[in-house]
Amino acid sequence: MIKPYIFDHPLITDKITRLRDRTTETTExxxxxxxxxxxxxxxxxxxxxxxxxxxxxxxVTTTCPVLAGAPPVLIxxxxxxxxxxxxxxxxxxxxxxxxxxxxxDHDTLQPVRYLVKLxxxxxxxxxxxxDPMLATGGSVSAALSLIKEQGANDITLISLIAAPEGxxxxxxxxxxxxxxxxxxxxxxxxxxxxxxxxxxxxxxLFGTE
Length: 209
Fold this sequence. Notes:
This protein has helices spanning 10-20, 26-44, 85-91, 138-149, 164-173, 201-206; strands spanning 5-6, 50-56, 61-67, 73-78, 99-104, 111-117, 127-130, 133-134, 155-162, 178-184, 187-188, 194-195. By secondary structure, the chain is of the alpha/beta class. The strands form three sheets. Strands 1, 4, 5, 6, 7, 8, 9 and 10 form an eight-stranded mixed sheet that branches. Helix 4 links the parallel strand 8 (133-134) and strand 9.
């Protein structure tokens, strides 16, 4: 089982605190999500393969490491995951972007699928699944199952805030994936929302209710 990576960095904790604040307005909220995602990229990309390449500097010829293989496939879980795509595309402009649309039934807390659009080839290349909130883990687990069915075998989840219950669900359902979390919160409430959390990420990102 791969242990989740939980960030402990003042730049990230500061921005997470500002995300939680109910007075943070939509524009700033979006900017903070993008900024935190970009900061998380440093560790999330650490295991990407490299190869050596010979280059000529203004002074000498030398051999240096460069990224090898295809760039990661980015798969946001709609709709909140969309806000995490652009900062990653700025670093990996050739990355394909798939989409998985899942909505949580507020009575049963079970995920309901409404869209799956994935690149044709997911095997033998990194696949990064993006979702700001990992609450019960039901939606993310369902998305990961769909992605695995399409051949993905190198999967990373990048999530901003998670509940212990969601982490435990993924460890049980998908023990081979890597998980990167900006903040691990206390628990879920009886409606399946993360506490202390930040409310509904999708509503706060897009100004809806």
